[in-house]
């Protein structure tokens, strides 16, 4: 499968979110103040099986979902995951600064970002997030010129662990008793993983 950016001319600017395409998916910017987009996000993000696994609480209203699109999902390099040939957002994936990786030193942070993702439960087990993440890694290394991409997951989250295994993110350390602030007083052991640009190119 060959994936490509639909807006290669602008994808090198980290302040802009391009539209990327894979065989089965369109990865595009989230649409702010769009009623259909808000309803779609609430439909999947209100599922209690989704958010807590990704360290955030289930959405409780469409108003909250609209606010999350405005304040969180509209961040640069954050993509709505859309299954072709439709236009409904069924998940989210993106690259963000390493603010959450408190144990990463300055050398590890240089030219690096963290990947995060989730998808609605009706679409689990189909390899869609792995497909999306492979394209986001390509975008990060080829278009943004990153030196490394990091990822974290709860040690008990087997599905996310398998995705990162397939992507080639190696285990760097385990962050014991990590505080998941968005969930309140919740603490979990987290796997901290990384793939460098050289490692990614070696897998191509």
Compact summary:
By secondary structure, the chain is an alpha+beta fold.
Shape: globular
Sheet with most strands: strand arrangement = 1-2-3-4-5-6-7-9-8
Helix content: 25-40%
State the CATH superfamily name.
Answer: Gcn5-related N-acetyltransferase (GNAT)
What sequence of helices (H) and strands (E) makes up the elements? EEEHHEEHEHEHEEH
Number of domains: 1
Q: Give the number of helices.
A: 6
Strand content: 25-35%
Which structural class do you get from the secondary structure elements?
Answer: alpha+beta
What does the model show?
This protein is an alpha+beta fold and 204 residues long. The chain has a single domain (18-203), classed as 3-Layer(aba) Sandwich (Aminopeptidase), CATH 3.40.630.30. The protein has six helices and nine strands, in the order βββααββαβαβαββα. A nine-stranded mixed β-sheet has the order 1-2-3-4-5-6-7-9-8, sandwiched between helices. Residues 1-11 have low confidence and may be disordered.
């Amino acid at each position: 499968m060959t994936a490509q950016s639909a807006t290669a001319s602008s994808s090198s600017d980290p302040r802009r979110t391009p539209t990327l395409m894979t065989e089965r998916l369109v990865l595009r910017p989230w649409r702010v103040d769009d009623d259909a987009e808000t309803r779609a996000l609430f439909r999947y993000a209100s599922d209690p099986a989704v958010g807590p696994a990704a360290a955030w609480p289930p959405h409780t209203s469409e108003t909250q979902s609209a606010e999350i699109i405005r304040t969180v999902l509209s961040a640069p390099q954050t993509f709505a995951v859309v299954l072709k040939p439709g236009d409904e957002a069924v998940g989210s994936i993106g690259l963000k600064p390493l603010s959450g990786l408190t144990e990463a030193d300055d050398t590890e942070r240089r030219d690096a970002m963290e990947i995060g993702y989730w998808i609605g439960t009706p679409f689990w087990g189909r390899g869609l997030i792995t497909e999306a993440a492979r394209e986001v890694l390509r975008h990060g290394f080829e278009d943004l010129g990153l030196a490394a991409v990091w990822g974290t997951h709860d040690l008990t989250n087997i599905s996310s662990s398998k995705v990162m295994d397939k992507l080639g993110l190696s285990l760097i350390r385990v962050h014991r008793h990590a505080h998941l602030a968005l969930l309140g007083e919740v603490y979990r052991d987290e796997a901290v993983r990384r793939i460098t640009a050289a490692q990614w190119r070696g897998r191509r």
